[in-house]
């Protein structure tokens, strides 16, 4: 069982890192600054981490793990192989991100955004390949790998936009809109006429 003091110390270091990232780029943050701002001592930091990079890596991995758990939650206690549409809802993922919005919005507005989004994208792709199966019309020749890449890439773009615009929709609203997008395709797409 993890010592509560360890959990508390790690949370303080994590929160301190987020606070500092709001003010400066990660490359300009020092371990000494993290220690001083956290009001904990150097030995406590080095009991848990070898470097600021270790702290950042753990912080990102914790958030990706949170998304992973939120993704898998609808599948818990399911007696059906084929899940109803509402059990495929991503509301739990959106709720998790919203509950931890300080971390997500800070990291995604920093130079770390691409690396963090890549980690989330990799988890979504893994989920799409290993936890879901897809039933298409028998006449369909869709490439499932490309289908998963397309869907998960669209999802990561939607999430990044939602966070980047300071959460203009609640998790419930975003989930409902995404559900409508998934089941609704335009009958036609046309170019707007250009005035000469």
From TrEMBL:
PROSITE patterns named among the record's database cross-references: HTH_TETR_2 (PS50977)
Keywords assigned by UniProt, alphabetized: DNA-binding
SUPFAM superfamilies (alphabetical): Homeodomain-like
DNA-binding region: 30-49
Coiled-coil parts of chain: none
Pfam families found in the cross-reference section: TetR_C_8, TetR_N
HTH tetR-type domain ranges (all copies): 7-67
Gene Ontology molecular functions: DNA binding
PANTHER family on file: ACREF/ENVCD OPERON REPRESSOR-RELATED, TETR-FAMILY TRANSCRIPTIONAL REGULATOR
Protein's name according to its UniProt entry: HTH tetR-type domain-containing protein
Source organism of this protein record: Paenibacillus pectinilyticus
Origin organism lineage: Bacteria, Bacillati, Bacillota, Bacilli, Bacillales
